Amino acid sequence: MDNIVLIGFMGTGKSTVGQHLSERLELEFVDSDEVIEERAGREISSIFAEYGEEYFRDLETEVITDLSRQQRLVISTGGGVVLRQENIEQLRKKGTIILLTAEPEVILDRVKDSDRPLLEVPEPLEKIKEMLADRREYYDITEYKIDTSQMSVAEVVAEIEKIISNEGG
Fold this sequence. Notes:
Shape: globular
Structural class: alpha/beta
Radius of gyration: 15 Å
Largest sheet: 5 strands, parallel
CATH class: Alpha Beta
CATH architecture: 3-Layer(aba) Sandwich
Number of helices: 8
Number of strands: 5
Strand content: 5-15%
Distance between the termini: 6 Å
Strand order of the largest sheet: 2-3-1-4-5
CATH topology: Rossmann fold
Oligomer: single chain
CATH superfamily: P-loop containing nucleotide triphosphate hydrolases
């Protein structure tokens, strides 16, 4: 079975859905951000603070390339993974890419108590809207899109299972 790759903005449910999906399908779950933190020996917020976003994106590309060589994974990616075309090309080689989306207000509610370096601004809702607008064309790379705003995790998992069964995976 090919990999199942979850892309989307922060707070759309990639990690939570990915964990449940991997259990349901008996596949290994991998969160690319966690792999980056393990390899770097520090949290992403620290990587951003000390080395900047470009350095983080380089680490992310290395991890995506490595994960893309494997099979039978459910991969939850970081929200900005789509900013580099090479990441998407790698993920497509052995994976079905599914975009998870959510309304900006839902995203803010989901991430407000977490450490998100890109949202450490006076108006985080406006920043979310701005970033979503900036990334729209990058996220629009797959025919598979699920708006998680009003769905339970189980409902999202069921939708993904339908997609995968139609793909022949």
